[in-house]
Amino acid sequence: MQITVTVNGTQHTAEVEPRLLLVHLLRDHLGLTGTHWGCDTSNCGTCVVWLDGTPVKSCTVLAVMADGHEVRTVEGLATADGLDPIQQAFSDHHGLQCGFCTPGMLMTGRWLLDHHPDPSEQQIREAISGQICRCTGYENIVRSVRAAAELSQAKGARA
């Protein structure tokens, strides 16, 4: 099947098998390897991307389901001005650890901050509860999302 998907603002047309998963379209066809492929069962959350602004686990979405829609990946977070506050905070507060869960955590954290600019620790923990980090007790990830909220608010105040 031929599909057309807008990924990080760029339109892509591809010929795909109907069974191809969105994660494989992104990684194997478009070369966007920032989206990680972990479990193929939606348990780990490393593959989270946004489909029309809503976080989805791309290992459970068929590429043909994205036809005519917009996808945003971790590569789409940074802007011409530099890193997104969530990326900067993860770097500054050691939320990266091994990095495998990081793309999904970043996409989930950015979505949370876009919808709840000043989230509580409980809201952060609930938002990331669909993702597995095998390196930490999530403390640095939670700390990073909180710091990103503060950084985003400070940038908004300067704008």
From TrEMBL:
Q: Does the keyword Ribosomal protein apply?
A: no
Q: Where is the signal peptide?
A: none
Instruction: Look up the domain of life of the source.
Output: Bacteria
Please state what the protein is called. (2Fe-2S)-binding protein
Q: Which residues form the 2Fe-2S ferredoxin-type domain?
A: 1-77
Record InterPro entries? 2Fe-2S-bd, 2Fe-2S-bd_dom_sf, 2Fe-2S_ferredoxin-like_sf, 2Fe-2S_ferredoxin-type, Beta-grasp_dom_sf, Diverse_Oxidoreductases
Please provide the record's keywords in A-Z order: 2Fe-2S, Iron, Iron-sulfur, Metal-binding, Oxidoreductase
Is Heme among this UniProt entry's keywords?
no
List the Pfam families: Fer2 (PF00111), Fer2_2 (PF01799)
Organism for this UniProt entry: Pseudonocardia hispaniensis
